Amino acid sequence: MSANSPQPLGSTTAASEQSSRQAVYLPPSDLAQKYNKGIHLSDNTIKPHPSASVAGSTKIKSIENFYVRPRWLFVRVETEGGVVGWGEGTLEGHTEAVQGSLKDVARRLVGWDAMNIEEIYTYLYRHRFYRGGEVLMSAMSGVDIALWDIKGKVLGVPVWELLGGKIRERCDVYGWVGGDRPSDVVEQAKVRKAQGFTRVKMNATESIGWLDSPHALDETVKRLAEVKAIGIDAGLDFHGRVHKGMAKQLAAALEPHRPLFIEEPLLPGHVNELKDLYNKTTIPIALGERLFTRLDCRPYFEAGCIDIIQPDIAHAGGISETKKIAIMAEAYDIGVAPHCPLGPLAFAASLHIGFSTPNFVVCEMSWKMHYNTGGFDLFTYMTNPDVFKVEGGSVGLLTTPGLGIELDEELIRSEAKEAEKLEPWINPLFRGDDGMIREW
């Protein structure tokens, strides 16, 4: 009888005995020991706000918005009990449109209970008849994020606790290199690596023709190879600039260099075309900053044409809708990588999604991004910037009530007065050699 022949119940085979003798049991790693009993609550003691037990104290008293440089729109919601929540409804290049929508939203919501986030979201989205779209959803985002901040502060817990609890203690992040017209990416990538990043993202191309010379793609491939050579991973943002004929060429040329992902390789709306590209490449495909609800995401999920969904929490209905998009994506084995070239409130809100979401993969971080000019950056309006410290390519758990960041309200108000005198930020205008407007 051979070693692996059927044996009587309860007996052992020669093969199993040999396997037992050869087995080597290594001591548990430091990481295994750290988590051998799971991830536990943070040390902070839960202390509800005094107004939590006062009837009517959580009703919305006021809603304000502040446009601040470099290009952000902050939303401030205050309750009758004096709890202040902050959100962000930044919509790059459409600031005044969102401010107009927020004026309408504010007059509707005064007197509503700030704790009933789902009811308020449902009212703002479903009761308007005309729904969705980037402007209304961005206004809703600013209010929604502020309401989650309020709820966390009233109950004395971080937002991730309200979203089901933490599933991780750190969220991976990436920084930008290269700017709108990518250049000097190697030197910038070295700086990012020194700052603690293990991943970066860069624009794949400058403006490009509908059908350009294949050589227009050579520099893209070279840049990726050079950045990866210094020991850092890189995602490439096609930014919807590259049309179908060029996109499939570029994906094929990049494939040997294994980018982290390619983002918006085609413009939103081209679901079938994206599926064709998806079937031609092994590179993970990411998309979603210009999708604003689960209904917008649904065709891409059902077509199986993306690997990573990138909702922007300041455009996609805030924490409420972004969390639902993430849950929906998990059913399709799609990762979530929040789009966030924005301010500290949007970034903090995105991290809370990450801390509580199994299929979260990485979050964009705007620290020292090329749009942050004039001395204004991610930490400008914060009084506790250390909570966003990057170590080993990630940011640690936010543990204080609400969003977990503290803002300099006096600075925000004074800066908003100055910014009112200026034209809001608008995106660059790209033209080809023939004068034709190109995708930015």
UniProtKB/TrEMBL annotation:
Residues 1-22 are annotated as: Disordered. Residues 182-284 form the Mandelate racemase/muconate lactonizing enzyme C-terminal domain. CDD domains: D-galactonate_dehydratase (cd03325). SMART domains: MR_MLE. Signal peptide: none annotated. Its cofactor is Mg(2+). PROSITE patterns: MR_MLE_1 (PS00908). One of its GO terms (molecular function) is metal ion binding. It holds the Pfam family MR_MLE_C. The keyword Magnesium applies. One of its GO terms (biological process) is amino acid catabolic process. Keywords: Lyase, Magnesium, Metal-binding. PANTHER family: D-GALACTONATE DEHYDRATASE, D-GALACTONATE DEHYDRATASE-RELATED. This is Mandelate racemase/muconate lactonizing enzyme C-terminal domain-containing protein. It comes from Kwoniella newhampshirensis. The lineage of its organism: Eukaryota, Fungi, Dikarya, Basidiomycota, Agaricomycotina.
